Structure to design on (155 residues):
């Protein structure tokens, strides 16, 4: 089968692409091998998602996952190891299978860095990954920024 859309990545952007594609009656295949955004699932509390104030990252991601999967995409729980353009679309490879799609949406997010000592234990209790999401929790307090990009400190 040649799918209309292949979505690589099961985080919020990838799942939104699944819903949008399926609502437009496109055949969609979703590739996610990481358990649908483990990074968001670790968030203690999300305050900036409209209509769901104070929701945990896990609950928010579960709602996203249920919504997207209710639209019936083909879900492949394998890592995409290669994407090759062809004359009529793309070939996507996993460790033992080949898939075809007319278009590909890469929604792979950003790679996580190795955790610092104490990071996991203090997640949601002082450790945060999103200044615009969680900044209000630390207003008026001293904070430290650990980042690999200069714009992170500015945020």
């Amino acid at each position: 089968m040649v799918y209309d859309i292949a979505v690589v990545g099961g985080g919020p952007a990838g799942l939104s692409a699944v819903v949008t594609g399926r609502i437009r009656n496109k055949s969609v295949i979703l590739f996610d091998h990481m358990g649908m955004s483990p990074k968001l699932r670790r968030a203690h509390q999300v305050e900036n998602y409209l209509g769901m104030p104070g929701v945990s990252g896990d609950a928010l991601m579960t709602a996203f996952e249920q919504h997207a999967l209710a639209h019936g995409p083909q879900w492949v729980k394998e890592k995409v190891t290669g994407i090759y353009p062809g004359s009529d679309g793309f070939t996507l490879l996993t460790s033992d299978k080949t898939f075809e799609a007319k278009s590909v949406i890469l929604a792979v997010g950003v790679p996580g860095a190795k955790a610092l000592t104490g990071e996991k234990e203090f997640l949601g209790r002082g450790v945060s990954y999103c200044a615009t999401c969680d900044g209000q929790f630390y207003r008026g307090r001293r904070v430290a920024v650990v980042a690999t990009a200069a714009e992170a400190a500015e945020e």
About this structure: The CA atoms of residues 47 and 53 lie 5 Å apart. The beta strands are 2-8, 28-31, 74-76, 82-86, 89-93, 98-106. Helices lie at 12-23, 38-41, 57-70, 131-134, 150-154. The mean pLDDT is 89.
